[in-house]
Design goal:
It comes from Polymorphospora rubra. The chain has 568 residues and is an alpha/beta fold. It is built from 20 helices and 9 strands. The protein has 2 domains: 285 residues, P-loop containing nucleotide triphosphate hydrolases (Rossmann fold, 3-Layer(aba) Sandwich), CATH 3.40.50.300; 190 residues, no CATH class.
């Protein structure tokens, strides 16, 4: 390389070292908090988001926990490259030993080789986790080196299989290892540095990992000195197009020890900082949160379930549960029971032969075991089954609750909300029936005025009976030709006759007088019963439709908060 080229590369290395030294230090506690936020996001979304969308997040949580639990004193650096890029030769040149096989046959590297600077014992658990076989682990520790290799103590350098290998197992192994290492050195050569597979298949996927990515143009010795800056500039242009602006780009050569000095300098800086593992995990968090960003949109509305929509749902459920029919039966039952308590005692028995309107619906009435025993199970009613139109109205109301609640949410949340809203539709008929049967309709007792009017009716009836009996006795005395009874007179009318006619007339008048009051009280009883029934039906709607919807919306809010915390 020319002196000018050497100075330009040296300047670049200096800038790279400055960037690695101070641009982005990752606080371990802050990183753990971000990983914890991703874990909270996964918990909040597991039942509502397709599992394939959460695969990267699950992998991050598992890998971050494992990597942080292993040695933080070691920095794992991988040399990744295509077939013929010379990465195995570069691996040997950096180690200054022939460790990884180099040959003409392709692919040469079928498994990962590792070189550890420092004692191997401290890195074994880390290498076990990465999956490097013991026979492919080497130690770069020699008494002959003195302090020459001391600056790299803690470095674990991997030579990966070729990522464009014809062997599919090699490609899969590369992809697995690239997800585990702390820093990746992409090795390209002058012939294939612009290969589309390299850029679209791998490099563009490392946009979130620019802090732990280095690109080297290997075999630079094959280029004329005048062409090297041109090729480096073109490589820089391609990396910028890949979204990897700022990523270090160096020229190396395995045949010239001096040509690896700059790369060794970057590795020494990386090892000294002990930040590569943290930066890699931070980049993983960035990549995961970026991949999940489309799952989160604006916050859910403060009134997460629209009240007007819930009211429409209650109307549909009330119609389906037969609330109008039960309320009407309640008013009729009130009239029936009021007439039985306040009517003329002579015809009360005939009225009792008529069935009670509520009992026809199998709804508990006063004096029934269901009404008196609070521990008895709620019976099924005989309320008419909902019509097809009413069932359709319930379905539309449920969909309206889901649609309005999730209108502002991104996919797949609207589908999750709809699924939650419909999750308990099969339980609605029985739940509505139990709600109607268990509602206190307010017609179980006997108001005081019923008793007063009933007592008055008995009094006038007894007066009529007494007058009738008195007249019958006088008639019997005349038949037996006994001395006639002298009836007390009430004006011009004998008292027995006045008692009989007055009792009958007063009984009819009292019955007619209380009828408007009974009608008014029956209407109030009907309205009160309808209000209580609607409240019971609304509670069923909240439990079976609104609560599942609100649960999904709360999960969305938790996921949104967690993703915001993970992205900090």
């Amino acid at each position: 390389m020319s002196a000018a080229t050497g100075r330009s590369v040296g300047d670049l290395v200096g800038k790279v070292r400055d960037r690695l030294r101070g641009d982005r230090r990752v606080d371990p506690d802050a990183l753990l908090a971000r990983v914890g936020a991703v874990e909270r996001f996964v918990r909040a979304t597991t039942d509502h988001v397709p599992e394939d969308r959460l695969g990267a997040a699950h992998t991050l949580i598992e890998r971050a926990g494992a990597r942080l639990a292993l040695s933080r004193d070691h920095t794992v650096v991988a040399l990744a490259g295509a077939t013929g890029s010379g990465k195995s030769s570069l691996f040997n040149a950096l180690a200054r030993l022939d460790l990884s096989p180099v040959g003409v046959r392709r692919p040469t590297t079928g498994v990962a080789h590792a070189c550890v600077w420092g004692p191997l014992e401290g890195a074994n658990r880390l290498l076990d986790w990465i999956g490097v076989l013991p026979r492919h682990r080497f130690v770069r520790e020699s008494a002959l080196d003195g302090d020459d290799e001391a600056a790299l103590h803690g470095l674990v350098l991997l030579d990966l299989p070729d990522f464009d290998s014809v062997e599919r197992a090699h490609r899969l192994e590369v992809e697995r290892l690239l997800g585990l290492v702390d820093l990746v050195v992409w090795v390209v050569d002058p012939q294939k540095y612009a290969d589309r597979v390299v850029h679209t298949g791998y490099l563009r996927g490392f946009q979130q990992h620019r802090d732990v990515t280095v690109v080297v143009l290997n075999q630079a010795d094959r280029l004329p000195p005048a062409d090297l800056p041109v090729v480096l500039d073109d490589l820089r242009r391609l990396l910028d197009a890949d979204g990897l602006d700022g990523v270090p780009v160096l020229a190396t050569s395995a045949v010239d020890p001096a040509a690896t000095t700059d790369l060794r300098g970057i590795l020494e800086t990386t090892v000294a900082q002990r930040q590569a593992a943290l930066r890699r995990l931070a980049g993983d968090v960035d990549a995961v949160t970026a991949g999940l960003a489309d799952l989160i949109g604006p916050p859910a509305a403060e009134d997460d379930v629209d009240r007007n929509t819930v009211r429409e749902l209650t109307d549909a459920l009330a119609a389906s549960a037969g609330v109008p029919a039960v309320a009407e039966a309640t008013g009729q039952a009130y009239r029936h029971r009021a007439a039985a308590s306040t009517g003329w005692p002579v015809v009360r028995g005939w009225r009792r032969l008529r069935p009670d309107p509520l009992r026809r619906l199998h709804l508990p009435g006063p004096g029934t075991p269901e009404a008196d025993d609070e521990t008895a199970p709620t019976p099924l009613t005989s309320v008419p089954d909902p019509t097809a139109a009413q069932r359709s109205a319930v379905g539309l109301a449920v969909r309206a609750v889901a649609a309005k609640s999730s209108a502002a949410l991104p996919a797949p949340w609207p589908a999750a909300v709809t699924t939650a809203a419909r999750s308990r539709l099969g339980d609605l008929p029985d739940a509505l029936d139990r709600a109607v049967a268990g509602t206190d309709l307010g017609v179980g007792g006997r108001p005081v005025w019923w008793r007063l009017v009933g007592g008055l009716q008995w009094l006038v009836t007894l007066a009529a009976v007494a007058g009738l009996g008195w007249l019958l006795v006088g008639y019997a005395v005349r038949i037996l030709q006994l001395p006639a009874l002298e009836y007390p007179m009430l004006g011009a009318v004998p008292l027995p006759t006045a008692l009989l006619l007055g009792g009958l007339l007063l009984g009819v008048l009292v019955a007619l007088a209380v009828r408007p009051l009974t009608s008014f009280a029956a209407r109030r009883a009907r309205a009160w019963a309808e209000s209580r029934l609607r409240a019971a039906v609304a509670e069923v709607g909240r439990e079976h439709v609104v609560a599942p919807v609100r649960s999904v919306l709360q999960a969305y809010a938790q996921a949104r908060e967690a993703l915001a915390a993970a992205g900090r």
